[in-house]
Design goal:
The protein is α/β, with parallel strands linked by helices. The chain has two domains: 246 residues, 3-Layer(aba) Sandwich (Alkaline Phosphatase, subunit A), CATH 3.40.720.10; 138 residues, Alpha-Beta Plaits. The protein is 31% helix and 20% strand.
Amino acid sequence: MANFDLMRRLTLDTGGKILLLVMDGVGGLPREQGGPTELEAAHTPNLDRLAREGSCGLSIPVTRGVAPGSGPAHLALFGYDPLVYEIGRGVLEATGIGLAVNPGDVAIRGNFCTVDGNGVITDRRAGRISTEEGAKRVELLQGISLSGVQFDVQIAKEYRFAVVMRGEGLNSAIADTDPQQTGVKPFPARALDPAAEKTADLTNQFLAEVAKRLKGHEPANMATLRGFAIDPALPKYADVYKLKAACVAVYPMYKGVSGLVGMDIIETTAHDTTADEFNRVAKIWDKYDFVFCHIKYTDSRGEDGDFDAKVKVIEGVDEALPILLDMNPDVMIVTGDHSTPATYKAHSWHPVPTLLWAPETHMTDRAEAYGERECMTGALGHFMAADLMPLALAHAKRLKKFGA
């Protein structure tokens, strides 16, 4: 993984330009024994060419056997040891939509949900209401203040929103209220540390007010909270890597983690297609040394358990890829933050197919295509995802020699 002290000593402020393309949850599994994975089943002539011309391998997001969340998985891709630098989901969600998280604040990720007359959850995502409908519910939650603590609530996307608690004596050591299943009531907020008892009590008062204000507003007539967190004050890209970096992503959480490491967040819309995102990258390419571009729906279709739909998303990325190739990046990395097999319907622990294409500096291997089995035998081998940034910098000729 990136040793930040070493990176500060070795990185140059000149060199090649780096593009990191992340297809969220791209890794998969066959749906029948011996069959192809989603990535292997997809028709991907452009990605396969890059694999033949570049180097391939499998990355491990956190450690072997551990299925990561999106936050730690992306931190690893950015070179941060996710076991050292932990970020709560609330901070990622809040910062991703431009909601300030100041010292002393507690940020929380919220989900609108549907409950029946007994308060039992019947739909954890409120029928996946639109962002417009979610924003209407958020309007109902404005102006809540309890014992001098303000609750700043803002829509994120669809059924998701963010809350920032602002006041004295707050503590983020609070267990999630989302039970992660239907057929049960939301959990009450519970302090994980005695110092958080006040915050837990305020959170439960807030949720009681939420229930009152959302009553009769089905399908989003209640909310659950998760990822209570504070700003972790991460080292920044400009300091550690001497890179002017930018993020092109549609979903707020990925903007959030990028902003926390010091990337500029490029404006996108909720309706941007893959081609739209790639065109945004092309538009800003001359202004940056490093651009991170995130594609969400590979992960979403995997979580839906829709193998064929995930294949189509991958094929759509490949079809639009010439937009990025026409920019002639010095280093291009294509990977995922984790695997989300459609057969598993969730993030999994399986290593992630990764390709590195750097025409001037890479060593080609025998991989003939971009897929799990081909990457198993590639020159990059099995490696920790947090090693990817030093590899990218080296291939971009942005690292000095170590020692005499």
